[in-house]
Every structure is written in C-alpha cells, then in structure tokens.
C-alpha cells in the first residue's frame, strides 16, 4: 500500500501529515486514518504529538487487547542497509497501568487516559509494539485541540550496544494508522485543522533537538463529498458522468478532480486514473467513450497541498484530505445484429 502522504524534501527535517476519514458528515462516526511521514534524508524522529481539532469527541474506554484498527508503515533498518521495509499490523488498546509515569521516558511523570499500540511487523515476524499515549487535551493545548496523541522513537543513529538505540537501528519513515469507534466528528461545518508536532534527534546523541521541532497540518473539510451519476444524454458512442463537489458547505470553482476506471480481473478490480478536470461552481462533467468491457468508475479529489494556517512552530506542510465518490458501472454498447 502506497501511503497517501509523503514528506516534501527541502531541508534536514521536513515532516508531513494527513487525515483521511470514512465519513466527513458533521457528527458522523467512522474510521479515521492518521498518516505521518518524513524523508529518508531527514534526521531521525524522536517524538510525534498529534492534536485532533476542537469539536471532535473521542471514546477512550476500549478494553485492553481490543483491536481498534490497523497500521501500515515504512522503516529503514540501518543494521541491514538503506532499503525501505514495509510493515503491517494491528492497532490495539492497552492498559495505561502497563506504562507507569515514573519510568515513562516518552512522557515523564504523566499518566494517561488510554494507550494504543502499533503492532507493525514484517510478514512472519513478531511485532515490536510502539505505544501511543492518548488523552483529552488540557491546559493551553485545550485552546486549539480536543485530543492529544503522543508517540516516541529511539535514536537509530546511536552506536550498537547503546541501550537508548532503536532495535537494529530501526528508523521511522512513515506510518498510516486507522482507528474505529474512537472519534465522532464535530457538529458544525467548516475546515477542521489537525496539527502534528515532530521533534527530531540530534543524530548520534540520543538527545531530542527541541529547537528543530516542526509542525505539519492536516485539513479536513466538513461536510465533504462528491456525488456521481451517469447522464443518459450523450453523443453516440460516448457516456457522460456528472456530479457536484461539496467542500465544507461550499460549491467551489477550480477544485481538481481525477476520474478512475477499472475492470474486473482474477484479483478484483484494479483502478487507474484515466482523466482529470476541475469544478465550476461545484459541478463537474466527464465525457468518455463507451468501454469495450464492463467498467467501474469513481471520482476523487486527491490529497492537496495547501498553505499552513497559523502554525504553533515552523510549519513544513499542510494537506487537505481527499474525497471519493461512489462507484458507477458502465456497460459496453449493445452489439449490432
């Protein structure tokens, strides 16, 4: 699986993030996928703090051992070489009691409402669970966020044998983890701003470089949807697809869209982009030749880079979530007798 967000290479530390949801309806509930990423050339990451926007509600009472989602990640294992290795696994709830405040180096002296573990591993290999500490925001952070998620990594650039070194020199590159039954969307329309603070290590020291902390943002329009339908009126040999795009309650002009098409094969339907267009007052149209085989089509507004909005620290990227229409089926024209 290719992750939807990649960091934009510009300096020694340029992380990025994105948020992708099963539903963008106000008050809706569904799977939320959080993507965080950095470049291979970036300094290793020490700490990531993800903030959900005000208005989101979170249920943090899942029983320990419950699987609440899945994770897909890419890492480098420096002891094995420079290649990128893909990892997959489950996201599970754990007991906060397993992470005593007195010995927790990631969040010293802090107790947590919930802990999730990212159990990503190579196929056939045991996972080295990475804890995510989850709390409702308090204090100054409650002014801009509802929930705070914190994860830490060990320094892969320390010498072998240093107990602070990550196992086998494992360096985080990117991860997409989903959770279900946790988040409920805000009740009001608008652009919801997720923030993530990334702090790198000063390489080879095991010491976080606080001055190098960077922010990345994920913008979630709400409501956010793309409608699609086949228009029967089309010139001979063609078909027409049309619909509307709702971005946070607006009907925008100039929003880029892609049309994807695929046919059924032995392993299912493989979609590929076949056309693109832009909206005009929230509307779009695609005119295509009738296919030779039964074809399935959908429209996507891809993840889009936008300007950062009032960052807490230097901001390296801001990405608006994607939206995907339903799927329509188009059959070939009847054979002539």
Keywords:
single chain, 337 residues, mainly beta, Immunoglobulin-like, 2 domains, 14-stranded mixed sheet, five-stranded antiparallel sheet, 49% strand, globular
* Oligomer type: single chain
Contiguous low-pLDDT stretches (5 residues minimum) are 1-11
The share of residues in extended strands comes to: over 45%
Roughly how much helix do the residues carry, as a percent range? Answer: under 10%
In CATH, the topology of the largest domain is named Immunoglobulin-like
Tell me, briefly, the overall form: globular
Question: Overall mean pLDDT score?
Answer: 94
Number of helices: 0
Q: If you compute it from the alpha carbons, what radius of gyration comes out, rounded to the nearest whole angstrom?
A: 22 Å
Total number of beta strands: 27
Structure write-up:
The protein is mainly beta and 337 residues long. It folds into 2 domains: 206 residues, Immunoglobulin-like, CATH 2.60.40; 90 residues, Immunoglobulin-like (Sandwich). 0% of the residues lie in helices and 49% in strands. It has no helices and 27 strands. The chain is globular, with a radius of gyration of 22 Å. It starts with 15 loop residues before the first strand and ends in a 7-residue tail after the last strand. The N terminus is likely disordered.
Task: Describe the structure concisely for a colleague.
The chain is mainly beta and 337 residues long.
Secondary structure: elements and pairs:
Layout: E1 16-21, E2 32-37, E3 45-53, E4 57-58, E5 67-77, E6 84-94, E7 114-121, E8 130-136, E9 145-152, E10 170-179, E11 183-184, E12 190-202, E13 207-208, E14 214-222, E15 224-226, E16 229-231, E17 238-247, E18 256-262, E19 264-265, E20 268-269, E21 272-278, E22 283-289, E23 295-301, E24 304-305, E25 315-320, E26 323-324, E27 328-330
Parallel strand pairs: 14-25
Antiparallel strand pairs: 1-2, 2-10, 3-9, 3-12, 4-11, 5-6, 5-10, 6-7, 7-8, 8-9, 12-13, 12-14, 15-17, 16-17, 17-22, 18-21, 18-23, 19-20, 23-26, 23-27, 24-25
